[in-house]
């Protein structure tokens, strides 16, 4: 499992064995079961999580009780409640496991210490954050400007493996469409 984290990091920066051991010492490991919450709205969310195995979703429940899915995270992806993590506040998002999950996590304090002492890791986290911002922008623009069919096609193109791993109701919720609308679309 350590190798999986190292591969993720080394897609962006190369680390010596000593540098990786040092970086790894700032992370902790956790395993959760399907349906278990990683983060619940209203609680602190002091960690950013790297998914080694499994599938999670982050979601927001509005005042009317409607669930809005913000993100899915599978192997090799990161997930957190960014507002709570970076501002050290309570979470506004929930994150739960859609499958049994294994992950590494890092607190904001450990991340800051690691980045201060190993600039390669500061660069790594900057690149990962930038990729996250780009994905979020793409998602917002898609929700604002694309028709349901276009959003579905984009989802299938970007995340083909999720089509097999997620219930159709969750895909529909993520796309901002009804389950019925999704069922009328050709599944690839």
Structure description:
This protein has a domain at 2-119: Jelly Rolls. 48% of the residues lie in helices and 23% in strands. The protein has 9 helices and 8 strands. It has helices at 2-10, 17-24, 82-87, 108-117, 119-145, 148-158, 160-165, 168-175, 179-183, and strands spanning 28-32, 37-39, 47-53, 55-61, 67-74, 78-79, 94-97, 101-107. It has a 4-stranded antiparallel β-sheet with strand order 1-8-3-6. Strands 2-7-4-5 form a 4-stranded antiparallel β-sheet, covered by helices on one side. Strand 4 and strand 5 (67-74) form a beta hairpin. Helix 4 crosses helix 5 (119-145). The longest helix has 27 residues, at 119-145. The radius of gyration is 17 Å and the shape is globular. The protein starts with a helix and ends in a 5-residue tail after the last helix. The model has no long low-confidence stretch (mean pLDDT 94).
